[in-house]
Every structure is written in C-alpha cells, then in structure tokens.
C-alpha cells in the first residue's frame, strides 16, 4: 500500500470516528447504559415509555428493558428481558361493571395493594432474580411511578440514580420525591375529576383526596412494599422511603400546561405530555383511507373506548343508543367494535374494526369528532390534531381528561349512566355543528404543540442530563429533606406562637406592674389625703 493508500485509510477512519461520535446524541453524551424496569402489565402505559426507550437506543445508548412487552423484531442497542406471562395483561382483565365502579377510593386501594401483588408475581420471575444478582453497571434506571415503587429496590442493587416516569399526569406521591409543591388549592389531584378551576366544595374534596392519597401511599403502600423488598432482596434493604428520597433525580410527567393548566414545578419535575404522539403517523391503510377520503364535506367521526372497552362490551341499552345515533349522522363513522358481535349489524355509514390506526385516523383532515373514554394517550392525540371530543369516562384519570377538554371548550363530557339516544345525539350534534368546539380545539392544539423542543426530545435531553451528571439531586428542591412538620411550617408556627406568647407575657407583666404601681401610688395618695382629712 502506497502513501496515497495510507492517507485514504486515515480519512476513512476519521470519518468513521466522527460518524460514531455523531450518533452519541446531540448533547454529546457518550453512549450510556440505561436500565428500565416496568412491573405493570398495562399496554397503554408501556407504549408511552417505549417511545422514549426506542429513541434512546436509536441515539446509541445501550437500553436494557425489563417489561411485559418485548419487541416483536429485535432493535439495535435494545435488549429485552421479558416478563411476559408472569401477570395477566390488563386487557380483558376487568369486567365492564368493575370498571364502572372503580371510583377514587377503590382505585387508591388498587394502587397500594394490588400493585404490590403484581410486583410480587414479577419479582418471582427468573429475570428479576437474575437482575438482583447482576453485576452490570448502569448510568440510570428508568421506572414507572404508578402504585408500587418496588422497582427502586433493583435500582439500589445496581447502584444507579432513578428517573421516574408517570404515564399519567403527576401522581400525588410522585411530587415530594423531587420536592415539588402540590397545593390542592389550585392543583387538581391526578385521579380526581377536577380541573384547576374548583368551587369551594371541589377544593375541599380535592384537598381531602390529595391528603388521603399521599398519606395512604406512605402509610399503607410503602409498608407493604418494604415487606416485599426485604423478603426478596434481603433483610438489610433500606426502607423504600429512604431509597426514593436518596436516589430520585427526576420525575417526568405526561402532562402539559396548555391542557392541564400551569402549575409550579422544580427543575426535576419535567412535563413531557404528548411524547407518545407521532407527528407523522403515516398514510392511512385501507379500507380506512378510501372511507375517510370519500367522507366529503360532512366529514367523519371516530368512536373508540380503547382496548379495555371494545364497543361490543357495552350493555344493550347503550349499544342501541349508539347504533341509532351513529346511524342517523350525515358523517361517516369508524368504530372500534367487533361488528360480527353487534346484533343486527352496523348501520351503513359505520365501519367497525377491532383494530384501528387511531393516530392516522385523527390526523385525517376529514376527521370532525372523537368519541372517546378519555384515556390520556387518545386525549393527547385529539389535542395534537385539533379534533373536538365527546368523552365518556370510565375511571382513573379519564374524568379529569374529559373535564379538561370541556374547560377548554374543545369537548363535552357525557357520563356513562346518562347515555340515552337523546343525550348522545345532543352531545355529538353540539361538537359537530357548533363551530366553537372546532375553533377551541384548534387553538388548544396550537398551544400544545408550540414548544422550544418536541416532548420526546425533552425527555431524551433530561435522561442524558441525569446520565452526564451521574445523578442529579440538585434538580430537586430542599423540600425533599424536610419532614412534613417542617414543610407545612408547623415548627415555624410553633416558634412564632412561642415568641408571641412571650411578648404577650412581657407586655402583660409590664402593663400590670405599671398599673399596679400607678394604682398603689394613687391608693397611697388617697389614703394620705384621707388621713389628712381625718386630722
Ligand atoms: C444512588 O445513586 C448513586 C449513583 O448516583 C449510587 O452510587 C448509590 O448507590 C445509589 N444509592 C441508592 C440508595 O440507591
Ligand atoms: C369477533 O367476534 C367473532 C364472533 O364472536 C369472533 O369469532 C372473532 O374472533 C372476533 N374477532 C376479533 C378480532 O376479536
């Protein structure tokens, strides 16, 4: 090989090195090692996080994923540790009546008790046993903040800082681990049916609900988790509260101020709402494309209650109302329903499908309205694409999501028990024919999308930030180290009360000495004059 050949090799090698450096990420983080552990078997939750994990892998980080949802095709840099089969999927797990009666208190008990049981099943899985003994080094551990924090035990075992992600909006017990203020006067509890505009009665309920959630999690949930962690990971495990307080660097939440209302947040509390919205959902597959393209000026309506409640699961009365009202619309309708299980079949303007390309459907210019159960993913997609909603909420955060759309004038809420032919027709007609809903949805969409950075980019940036700094406790406020007595200023109140009491005592003593003095002088004088008079 001549001098020329060598020179060419040198250029090629430099280019390769540069190329390799480029894939390390915009922010210049070298390839990091990410461990993510998701005990919960809800698919819609995992979908939110999967977006981030795939993006991290794409940027050259080594991503190890413990979850119930392994990739169908292997991805570069993405290694699955599958828990599939260790706990039944949440789809078809609940009956319709159970969903209906899943009110706040039941939901909390489910969070603290049932989630520990899911953890127990998961922790018995060989993958988790292996992980507990693993000697692999990680730069950061990503976990979901939901009902149980059992995953923190494994973060402790591998000795890495933790990023918590809530696939819902910020949960009450996801705040104090980064020292975030969570004032129930104007911040609605994540799982309560309120928005930032609350009446006195609603604020009372919101405050009680938040207190119940925060203290229930501390006193019930964490205790059960402590027992479980010590049973599986060793009797010398520190308490969960200690792990959470020592090692949480960041909390990412699936909200955005444009939709949820502005709230105070420390730097370690980052909003990434909309992260799972795909801005380029691609062309619509057939038969949906021809169906929507041909919908004409009247447009189309999408009806979907997510994977938990497919249309055919509706009780007969509500199902009949839907068939009548949808069938009489001038719009074309796409419905997530198994048509062969609808007695009498579907009306002629409706196509039913058990699978729907929801994002591509919502992004279609002919889409006029979305009838939804108000899941967070679907709500964000509707907001992103500016489609007004009729929300029929079942449980969890769905009520709040519906009320938020209603508060912004971009949707209507219809309670399930109130569904009749009339109420459903009215709600749909309002959203379809009153232009204010469409205008508000468009305005909300613009505010939701106008950001310095795409939400996924934000999530990646902060994950890399925590890796770069090997944990970032400086993103949290000093509230993390305070007890609730200090945080609620009860100690300061006590000091102030003591000072006030002291001042009052001094004042009282001075005044009484002074008046005594005056009084006795006056008495003296009086007795002298009396004596003089007698003489
Ligand atoms: C917390 O994270 C640091 C790395 O930032 C690690 O050295 C330490 O062991 C972790 N401690 C706990 C209790 O997880
Ligand atoms: C739809 O329902 C029919 C009849 O019960 C059933 O055979 C079919 O498997 C269902 N399709 C799907 C995709 O669930």
From TrEMBL:
Chief location category: membrane
Any GO molecular function: glucuronosyltransferase activity
One cellular component (GO) term of this entry: membrane
Keyword Membrane in annotation: yes
Keyword Membrane among record annotations: yes
Reactions catalysed, as given in the entry: glucuronate acceptor + UDP-alpha-D-glucuronate = acceptor beta-D-glucuronoside + UDP + H(+)
Signal peptide interval: 1-24
Enzyme class, UniProt record, top EC level: transferase
This enzyme's EC code(s): 2.4.1.17
Keywords, in A-Z order: Glycosyltransferase, Membrane, Signal, Transferase, Transmembrane, Transmembrane helix
InterPro entries named among the record's database cross-references: UDP-glycosyltransferase, UDP_glucos_trans, UDP_glycos_trans_CS
Entry membrane topology: Single-pass membrane protein
Highest taxon listed in the record's lineage: Eukaryota
Protein name: UDP-glucuronosyltransferase
Native source species: Gryllus longicercus
Lineage: Eukaryota, Metazoa, Ecdysozoa, Arthropoda, Hexapoda
């Amino acid at each position: 090989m001549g001098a020329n050949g060598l020179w060419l090799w040198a250029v090629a090698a430099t280019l390769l090195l540069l190329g390799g450096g480029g894939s390390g990420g915009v922010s210049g983080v070298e390839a990091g090692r990410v461990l993510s552990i998701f005990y919960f078997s809800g698919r819609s939750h995992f979908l939110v996080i999967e977006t981030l994990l795939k993006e991290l892998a794409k940027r050259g980080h080594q991503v190890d994923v413990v979850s119930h949802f392994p990739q169908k095709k292997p991805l570069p840099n993405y290694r699955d540790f599958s828990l599939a089969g260790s706990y039944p999927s949440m789809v078809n797990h609940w009956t319709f009546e159970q969903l209906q009666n899943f009110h706040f208190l039941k939901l909390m008990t489910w969070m603290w008790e049932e989630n520990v049981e899911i953890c127990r099943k998961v922790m018995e899985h060989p993958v988790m046993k292996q992980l507990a003994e693993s000697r692999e080094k990680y730069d950061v551990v990503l976990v979901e903040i939901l009902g149980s924090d059992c995953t923190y035990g494994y973060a402790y075992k591998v000795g890495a800082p933790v990023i918590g992600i809530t696939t819902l909006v910020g949960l009450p017990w996801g705040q104090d681990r980064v020292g975030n203020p969570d004032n129930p006067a104007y911040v609605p509890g994540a799982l309560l049916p309120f928005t930032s505009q609350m009446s006195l009665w609603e604020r009372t309920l919101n405050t009680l609900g938040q207190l119940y959630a925060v203290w229930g999690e501390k006193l019930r949930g964490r205790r059960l988790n402590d027992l479980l962690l010590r049973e599986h990971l060793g009797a010398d495990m520190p308490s969960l509260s200690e792990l959470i307080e020592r090692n949480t660097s960041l909390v990412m939440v699936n909200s955005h101020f444009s939709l949820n209302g502005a709230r105070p947040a420390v730097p370690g509390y980052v909003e990434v709402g909309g992260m799972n919205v795909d801005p380029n959902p691609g062309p619509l597959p057939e038969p949906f494309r021809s169906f929507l393209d041909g919908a004409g000026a009247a447009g189309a309506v999408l009806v979907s209650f997510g994977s938990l409640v497919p249309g055919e699961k509706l009780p007969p009365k509500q199902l009949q109302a839907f068939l009548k009202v949808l069938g009489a619309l001038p719009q074309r309708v796409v419905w997530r329903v198994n048509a062969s299980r609808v007695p009498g079949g579907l009306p002629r303007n409706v196509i039913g499908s058990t699978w729907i390309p929801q994002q591509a459907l919502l992004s279609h210019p002919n889409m006029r309205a979305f009838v939804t159960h108000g899941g967070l993913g679907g709500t964000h997609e509707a907001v992103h694409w500016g489609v007004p909603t009729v929300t029929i909420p079942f449980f969890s955060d769905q009520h709040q999501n519906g009320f938020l759309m209603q508060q912004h004038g971009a949707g209507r809420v219809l309670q399930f028990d109130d569904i009749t032919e009339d109420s459903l027709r009215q709600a749909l007609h309002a959203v379809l024919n009153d232009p204010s809903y469409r205008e508000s949805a468009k305005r909300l969409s613009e505010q939701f999308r106008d950001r310095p950075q795409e939400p996924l980019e934000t999530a990646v940036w902060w994950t890399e930030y925590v890796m770069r700094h090997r944990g970032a406790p400086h993103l949290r406020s000093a509230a993390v180290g305070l007890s609730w007595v200090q945080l609620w200023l009860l100690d300061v109140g006590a000091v102030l009360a003591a000072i006030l009491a002291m001042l009052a005592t001094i004042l009282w003593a001075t005044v009484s000495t002074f008046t005594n003095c005056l009084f006795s002088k006056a008495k003296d004088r009086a007795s002298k004059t009396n004596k003089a008079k007698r003489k």
